[in-house]
Amino acid sequence: MRALTVLFALVLFVSGCVSEQKQTEQDILNYVDPFIGTGFHGHTFPGATTPFGMVQLSPDTHIMGWDASSGYHNEDSTIYGFSHTHLSGTGIGDLGDVLLLPYSNSDELKPVGLFDKKDETASPGYYKVRLKNLNVSAELTATKRVGFHKYSFDNGSDRNVMLDLGHILQPNWGHSIVKNTIHQIDDKTFEGVQLTKGWAEDHLVAYRIEFSEAFDRLRTFAEGEPTTETSLTGKDIKLHFKFPQNDKVLLVKVALSVVDEAGANKNMQAELTGWDFDKTMEQAKAEWREALQGITISTDDEAVKTNFYTALYHSMMSPFTAQDVDGRYRGMDKTIRQAPEGFTNYTVFSLWDTFRAFHPLITIIRPEKAGEWAEALVQKYREGGLLPKWPLASNYTGTMVGYPATSVMADALAKGLVPNADLNDWKEAAVKSATWQPEWLEAHAGQRGAEVMMKHIYYKEKYGFVPSDSITASVSYGVEMAYYDWCVAEIAKAAGDDKTADEFYKKSKYYENYFDASTGFMRGKNGDGSWRTPFNPKYSDHNHADYTEGNAYQWSYFAPHDMNGMVNLFGGKDVFESSLDSLFTTSSEILGENASADITGLIGQYAHGNEPSHHMAYLYNYTNAKWKTQKYLDQVLYDFYLPEPAGIIGNEDCGQMSAWYVLNAIGFYQVCPGDPTYTIGRPVIDQASVRVPGGTFEIVAHNNSKENKFIEKVVLNGETLDEPFFSHEDLMKGGMLEFYMTSEHY
User: Fold this and answer.
1) Which residues contact residue 675 at a Cβ distance below 8 angstroms, ignoring those fewer than 6 apart?
2) Which residues, in sequence order, are bridge partners of residue 517?
3) Over 60: is that where the pLDDT of 9 sits?
4) CA 254 – CA 264 distance, rounded (Å)
5) 621 and 480 share one domain
6) What pLDDT score does 441 carry?
């Protein structure tokens, strides 16, 4: 009997070890590689953050140029320090606030660190690097509002940290320090406020810095000159801390606030009172582990698995929290506000990019967050008088095209995600943002992007199109504003205002005014109604032509709200299919000496590296050649997403490129946000489980392989789909979607 008991215990022990090993091997975080996208033009960063956290603590290796937008590039080997705020994947740079650098063996005013790639590691919530010339290793982790540093010095007698408050990421783009104030609290603690000007015209960040031990020497510099003061005001301020001789690791905590130093202190007390670095790191990893459970997949293709979970990770970097733990935040009118119960303020909405795939993805895996963000956008209207199109640190940047916040709002309403929305407020916000508002323009005169935000709308209201001889990017604005006007109409309809809805439904057809039947392209039109000449559909002139970041090929297929109308405009399904064939099979030559660098990831003239192309492969689903959707999606999924630093084919853009991959990898996409309908693509996973309010939505791709890229049939809950479409309601109540894959197209 004793022998049986021992044997049974041994079996349980071995089983437990195997189970534990299997769990470790299957840890979802093992398939996240934060270095993906840090090469080429991906513009991501590898540092430590939490899902949608205020702090993104990461190394700054690059401070000038387009590929420096995140502060990091994979080809660099120099680290200026570790700053606490970054933008993921954007085409413009900013932030990089409150930079620290540990060092030994340097008497320089501004030391820099050198590193080798083999000495650098990163995973969700954690980053580590060895600075070989400074003889120190740095490890980073974070809570939502606090960055946590761990420094291990080779030489215990030479332990130093530089705080560089003159650090900026984009001096060549006008990023500059406006003012710094910093003062000492005690021999371990400093607090301060930094004001900068750049992409965000008026950006404030307050902070509290705490060291794990008292420093025994402090050198301070203001504008490059030494000073004995410990309370300083200026632009270029640097503090050099020297710590006592010992072999301990040095820990540093930096809490941020969007309001003031008191807010930073409260954030510190609420989120990180202790000094347990490993525990904090594990908490950050646990947050990521839970966040990434929204969709789980099964596949034997390790590259697909790494691409997928890294893409899901990149889809949760922003928008990020811009509110202190006490509920205070800085509004679009720059006043300090107290958030009502249940409301959280966010910033970094890259809306022109993210309305297409990122926000639709969030409506599936985090529906409560999607509704929260839509309401946050309306609140920004209440504060500033207009819906934002790229809000950054409580600033209207005016970046990109139209008024895409209306897309996020319309989609949230269509999917029932904001049941308590004040629909009259929502309608007012949408209508005012889509109509000429000279009083708003006057009130925001001189602010970056204010004139651009309104001028296109003025011409649209006057002519029914935006004349090319009056303003640039006329076609891009025109066709996108037609879609946004449809979104406004949907919002007005939800609010019970049929008159306003009808008015904007009519405006949603204005995209037709740009179509030239003689060439088959959307073209620039002059104020007198004549076509702009000369015309070549492959021509691009960045920021000076009729098309934003593209050419006529990349801007002639955008009317997602009126697909039947667009197909008929081209001349019917066969003609439309032929036009799409030309898009994907013509040469990839881009003409023009100043062609946009955003035109990357080319299949013919389809440019996956930039957002206007992201829906185009799905347009074959509106023709008689639906298999071509699967053909081209297969090429994009396998060729333009790779598990390597250069593995994202264009700017990642705050989750859009990654969200596109997540949705397409599991086999469907929403062509028209605001219309809660998904259309079928080409899954590259074998199985997926989507966590939804109704339980789970299971996806199975039978006979899936690289050779079997085509779909024989699709079955939803036991019923074969006659057309490649299903509803958001079908998805959210749970069920099963089955793809039967084959090597032959149908």
Assistant:
1) 414, 560, 561
2) none
3) no
4) 9
5) yes
6) 79
